[in-house]
Amino acid sequence: MNKETVLFEEGAHKCVMFSLEDEEQEENSLSVNQFLIVQGDSAVLIDPGSGAIFTELYDAVARHIDPRKIKYIFFSHQDPDVAGAIAEWSVATSAQLVISGLWSRFMSHYGLTDSSRIIALPDHGGRVPFKDGFIQFIPAHFLHSPGNFSLYDSRSKILFSGDIGAAILSPQNLNKRVDDFESHRPFLESFHRRYMASNVFCRAWVREVRRYEVDTIAPQHGSLFRGGNAAAFLEWFENVEGGAEHIDGLYLPNVE
Ligand code: FE
User: Fold this and answer.
1) Around 1, how many Cα atoms within 13 Å sit in the side-chain half-sphere?
2) Which pLDDT band holds residue 25 (cuts at 50, 70, 90)?
3) What is residue 1's predicted lDDT score, i.e. its pLDDT?
4) How many whole angstroms from 155 Cα to the centroid of ligand 1?
5) Edge-to-edge strands of the sheet including 216-219?
6) Sequence-separated (6 or more) residues with CB below 8 Å from residue 255
7) Cβ atoms of residues 98 and 128 within 8 Å
8) What integer pLDDT is reported at residue 106 of this predicted model?
């Protein structure tokens, strides 16, 4: 599998996807993606993952930009496959560490010693000017984590969606690109049904995302949705039913 894909390149702006796996876990793990936005001599690293891939990812990033020039490292939520190596990245770079305010105080449990490095995002997210465009932290709460964000890059029109859009074991994950939404859909269904909290949150997120011009949806697991497949994904996702809609299946029937 190709471990590095340039998703967008125009002038000084470049978006790169790395698909590094913890090799010991490769058989049972989800396929994991990490992302880098480079703009001139500044950069944003997205969902860099756990300690198992830290060195390999650091070297891969360094082929595109001096890692000391990373301005922000964004964590869509608190999970170990997203933020597990936050302590290592805090030492290796001088970047600000951007994560939901719900999770900032927990990062010391991953070994982060300097909490002043964290930018704790408020629930409604926010916009940061990024050279001649902006990056927008879009609320994605309860999809699946209670404090959860997606990141939109206005230059590339890529939406980095975190766990939203994750596909498990889809044959289309092999080339990291959805060619046919309908045949990819079955591999999305069980994950979203169990991990997403409720259709209420799916709808709120889709409504917000539609305010932006999105060409590509890039999830942290699985394959990219581009063009018509991104539109098909949004149409599907706004009708996803999550935990709240399937709560009966989570408890044994009451036999009295
Ligand atoms: Fe997660």
Assistant:
1) 20
2) low
3) 60
4) 26
5) 126-130, 133-139, 149-153, 158-162, 216-219, 225-226
6) none
7) no
8) 98
Question: Of the candidates 13, 29, 56, which has an alpha carbon nearest to the alpha carbon of residue 156?
Answer: 13
- Residue 79 CA to ligand 1 center (angstroms) comes to 5
pLDDT digits (tens, 9 = 90+) for 45-100: 999 999 999 999 999 999 999 999 999 999 999 999 999 999 999 999 999 999 99
Instruction: Specify the long-range contacts of residues 245-251, CB closer than 8 Å, at least 24 apart.
Output: 245/198, 245/199, 246/193, 246/194
- Taking the centre of ligand 1 as the mean of its atom positions, its distance from the CA of residue 115, in whole angstroms, is 22
Selected residue with higher pLDDT from 1 and 103: 103
> How much is the pLDDT for 171?
85
- Residue 143 alpha carbon to ligand 1 centre in Å: 9
Alpha helices in 23-119 (DSSP H): 54-62, 80-83, 86-92
**CA 10 to ligand 1 centroid distance, Å:** 31
Domain boundaries defined on the chain: 4-250
Ligand 1 centroid to 166 CA: how many Å?
Answer: 10
pLDDT of amino acid 117? 98
Please give the CATH number for the structural domain made up of 4-250. Answer: 3.60.15.10
What residue type is 153 in one-letter code?
D
**Å from CA of 247 to ligand 1 middle:** 20
Instruction: For residue 249, give the amino acid letter.
Output: G
Q: How far is the CA of 173 from the centre of ligand 1 (A)?
A: 18
